[in-house]
Amino acid sequence: MNHYSDLKDLKDFQATVDLALELKNDPYAYEDLGKRKTIAMVFFNNSLRTRLSTEKAARNLGMDVMVLNVSNSWNLEFEDGTIMNLDTAEHIKEATQVIAQYADIIAVRAFANLKDKIEDQQEKILNAFIKNAGVPIVNMESALSHPLQGLTDAITIKEQELKKRPKVVLSWAPHPRSLPHAVANSFITAMKMSDVDLVITNPRGYDLDPEITAGTEINNDQIEACKNADIIYVKNWSSFDSYGKVIQQDIDWMMTQEKLGHAKFMHCLPVRRNVVVEDAVIDSDQSVVIEQAGNRTFAAQAVLKLLLKDLN
Amino acid sequence: MNHYSDLKDLKDFQATVDLALELKNDPYAYEDLGKRKTIAMVFFNNSLRTRLSTEKAARNLGMDVMVLNVSNSWNLEFEDGTIMNLDTAEHIKEATQVIAQYADIIAVRAFANLKDKIEDQQEKILNAFIKNAGVPIVNMESALSHPLQGLTDAITIKEQELKKRPKVVLSWAPHPRSLPHAVANSFITAMKMSDVDLVITNPRGYDLDPEITAGTEINNDQIEACKNADIIYVKNWSSFDSYGKVIQQDIDWMMTQEKLGHAKFMHCLPVRRNVVVEDAVIDSDQSVVIEQAGNRTFAAQAVLKLLLKDLN
Amino acid sequence: MNHYSDLKDLKDFQATVDLALELKNDPYAYEDLGKRKTIAMVFFNNSLRTRLSTEKAARNLGMDVMVLNVSNSWNLEFEDGTIMNLDTAEHIKEATQVIAQYADIIAVRAFANLKDKIEDQQEKILNAFIKNAGVPIVNMESALSHPLQGLTDAITIKEQELKKRPKVVLSWAPHPRSLPHAVANSFITAMKMSDVDLVITNPRGYDLDPEITAGTEINNDQIEACKNADIIYVKNWSSFDSYGKVIQQDIDWMMTQEKLGHAKFMHCLPVRRNVVVEDAVIDSDQSVVIEQAGNRTFAAQAVLKLLLKDLN
């Protein structure tokens, strides 16, 4: 594997899920693999879970970690040929190559801006690192995908030891702010690579990118979609058609015990209680959100292990 | 020891002082004890001394350290049952459990706000970590106490090799801003556990929480209180009765050479020169403030050593 | 070596260049030298290259690294005898000594303010650390010099394996903002210690400090100065005479392929493309700016190696 920009970079998705579970069982099995290797984690946006879990994963493998928070402080130029006599002080071509001088692997977080669909789809920051850096790049959530979360989600479902081909529902939920599509996109991609029946449920106007959802049932009736589910993954996203807009916040879409039935409840966190999900659900034994957050470490560790192996 | 939220969590205060001095003499005596263990240091407020000394202490024990500055960037919800459709984006219940997924010990700094006494006394952030995280919590200064500083202060006094049962004075000093009570509270608590004669001196209206000062002489005459002192610990705090208010800044309360006499001068730093203490005092041989700051490392190291021992 | 505040602190400049190249060839040759030693990196200004390269250098030597960003959050007092009842909350005397309690080496970045020449020339922050800390201090760019960059530049030129006594040109270039003199000063100092012919070219009004340039040709005709150069180092700086002012931004001073001739192009980065240098130059094979950035690690590592040796 050269980079981990998307779940599709994994040569064998199920083997990677198994590797992560193996690492969870024995986190220090490869603690010398990353010796004398450095990961630079570059954050263009804030992070809690991704920062801590990826740092922990790297250290479990014996790597050195350098964290660089560049939100708001680094005016990068992305266009070719610009006369840089205004706000931008450094071209992404130099920035990416320079960081690569000090790191063996670079992990990057650069969210969608949710204002310009075409700009977001270009993934300018992530792709500039991949194009220029010359070292493996790990996507810590870009505009379009969050493949460390998607892998985590598959690990967490596998751990539940459900019946063969369980029913998995991805349900939209209301939220007061405009949120990206990356988590939902990567969850769908991960489920398509897994032996599950996936159903997406969201209100009209909230269908995700048809290239991502192709071949998957989308049901606008949440109650019907959730029936007999084994896993219900709840997540808000802003509209894809009316790009980045919050077009409704109907509280009837909140996940409740009644809709949950016997299913396990999943969410990537952070979550707004009693908006996205009622307390009775997240506080119940059916909620696996904390284990899910914990699995972030082992998803990252599996990815770094694969990258380090090809580096050595 | 399960947590270090307060000096009273220590099973044997004097033995911990002795352990710290032992570690000062041989800082790497337990450098394998923290191997494969991670401390997450979470700062809801700025830190210099506490950050560097606690990080150093953890590394002396072989631990990995992750520092998380969350001041101003994390809108946490504390109430149960809230419909989180406004500013708060994550509930403290999830936040605490999630961080615990990535750390073996969590250290937390969350100052008093000094606006609402009842709210401060609830220690909402610290107590939420203790209640939910499921891993040992270290208090790096909360609303009510700063037990790493209190332990440091006892270590520093012990090092002075004073006469049996020395006279220790805690003297209020003027300051232009409203400061918390945590350092003074923990100093008093530490001295009550030590073989010293403690006198507190402060202007009228500046008596600290009577539950903390119970049994200790409070003298409003600073000159009289300081007579024949062996140690004078100077510190400003805002009013406890007129909660959080600066009710006077009388420069006559500044510590001077005359009042100091033959005593050693202590302060937790940072200190405003020629307001809290005159240059002649802090620049004299009687000032031990730098050694005191240095002892922060060994106080933290003793505490972490005790927590790690019970963890392994 | 006690401190690395300036290139002149090096006992043998050429031997240090050779040591850096040796470390580049075998970065882990001394990976136990820094064991149980901590460097505290204190940034009063933002940093990307210096932060990452110095941290990497320290880790290559087995050191622990603590990074402290204090820009905007630390109101330090520098004057003696001040009554600190206004904005400043800590005196530099305490601040420097306290940090030294937790570190074996302290690296400091504190830029010129470019408003008051006399104040900048006092190097108040750097010199306070040297005076008070009692541990070795490394200059990570001060008002007057950037000796880690100067050493890097000499390393990079040595790697080019040029003819004996190559012609090296330092050329001013336009820039919309007011920039410090530190990089240019240290480049000149490094070249004076090297076996090269140095020519400086800048517009009238942009002559650097005559104490630095003494003995070096300054030519106001850029085209003539660049003729037959082996190395052209391009850098903007604000006026020294009209201190800190941008007195012109004439785009004719931008470095072009025509002026470059057969020379190698160097710049410390970040660089504004098509203002300081045209794309055709920086994107050509003659540009060595990325290798130059990479050499920052080995310059820092050579300096830390020398300091650690004298520490042990």
UniProtKB/TrEMBL annotation, chains A, B, C:
Source organism superkingdom: Bacteria
All residue ranges annotated as the Aspartate/ornithine carbamoyltransferase carbamoyl-P binding domain in the record: 5-159
UniProt-recorded Gene Ontology molecular function terms: amino acid binding; ornithine carbamoyltransferase activity
EC number: 2.1.3.11
Domain Aspartate/ornithine carbamoyltransferase Asp/Orn-binding: 183-306
Pfam families given in the database record: OTCace, OTCace_N
Reactions it catalyzes: N(2)-succinyl-L-ornithine + carbamoyl phosphate = N(2)-succinyl-L-citrulline + phosphate + H(+)
Keywords, in A-Z order: Amino-acid biosynthesis, Arginine biosynthesis, Transferase
One GO term of the biological process aspect: L-arginine biosynthetic process via ornithine
Binding site for carbamoyl phosphate: S47, L48, R49, T50, W74, R109, H146, P147, L148, Q149, C268, L269, R296
HAMAP family xrefs: SOTCase (MF_02235)
Subunit: Homotrimer.
Recorded family membership: Belongs to the aspartate/ornithine carbamoyltransferase superfamily. SOTCase family.
Name by which UniProt lists this protein: N-succinylornithine carbamoyltransferase
Organism from which the protein derives: Nonlabens ponticola
Lineage: Bacteria, Pseudomonadati, Bacteroidota, Flavobacteriia, Flavobacteriales
Primary gene name: argF'
